[in-house]
Design brief:
Length: 263
């Protein structure tokens, strides 16, 4: 069973959602038969690679918040991350462009290490205060997870995998994704946002069972308490996300809110 995940390296709910999925997979009896495919999504393609201001200042300026509101939001997100063993040192975070980081993930995918690359890049950004838009840091991190140094250096110095990143983003637009994380299980079921572990457990079970039936029924899990709304997921289907609106027509606050980050 394949799980397609759209995510951005600097999206805190992507980090939390990734961990929730991992915890759900820990208790899933068919976990060895699950393949994860990572897809690029840039929350802010226009931002500089290495920021000259703090995360709090960037978030406040980008989303029209006061510094106090921005700081409180980061504290709340850090508390949620800590609940699943993740450390978000938001005061040290360097929110910058992630285009090259996504290209590095595509390099890692060629070596079967995309998930490892995502984890290392996210830990570097959220916990260690690394600027993941800095190509020197990306070179170091790529080598750290065992990628060939020459391959990483060549890619970062050129434009390889640019089209792969753009293709991922085009696919997201086609589905109607405007916020991440976004998970599509076996092209049948979509989970939008960093939903609770229990939601991922139900989704895994339902998607697996659907593989052995002829039914086309599929559900999309979202943040709302009214979880009866459902729709099939896939690149050719409009995916309805409970709590986030219908794909392609949904409205977001333009920030990290509730369980996802939006452009």
């Amino acid at each position: 069973m394949k799980i397609d995940i759209w995510s951005d390296i600097v999206c805190p709910f992507c980090y939390i959602g990734k961990r929730h999925l991992e915890l759900a997979l820990d208790g899933f009896e068919h976990a060895d038969d699950v393949e994860i495919a990572w897809h690029s999504f840039e929350l802010d393609p226009t931002i500089e690679a290495v920021p000259d201001t703090t995360l709090v200042e960037k978030i406040a300026a980008k989303y029209g918040m006061t510094p106090e509101q921005s700081e409180r939001s980061q504290e709340d997100i850090a508390a949620r991350a800590a609940e699943v063993g993740l450390e978000f040192n938001w005061r040290e975070a360097k929110f910058g462009n992630t285009f090259d980081a996504h290209r590095l993930v595509h390099v890692a995918a060629q070596h079967g290490r995309a998930t490892e690359a995502h984890e290392r890049l996210m830990r570097a950004y959220f916990t260690e205060g690394v600027a993941v838009g800095d190509t020197t840091e990306l070179q170091r991190l790529g080598e750290e997870i065992g990628l060939p140094a020459d391959d990483v250096r060549r890619v970062l110095a050129g434009d390889e995998f640019t089209q792969d990143v753009r293709a991922d983003e085009a696919a997201a637009r086609q589905i109607g994704i405007t916020g991440v994380p976004f998970f599509v299980l076996d092209e049948r079921l979509a989970v939008s946002g960093a939903q609770p572990v229990e939601t991922f457990e139900r989704a895994l079970t339902q998607a697996w069972r659907a593989r052995t039936t002829t039914s086309d029924a599929a559900a999309t899990y979202g943040a709302s308490t009214s979880s009866n709304d459902a729709a099939p997921a896939g690149r050719d289907a409009g995916t309805e996300s409970v709590g986030h609106g219908r794909a392609g027509t949904n409205t977001h606050l333009g920030t990290c809110d509730a369980d996802h980050c939006a452009i």
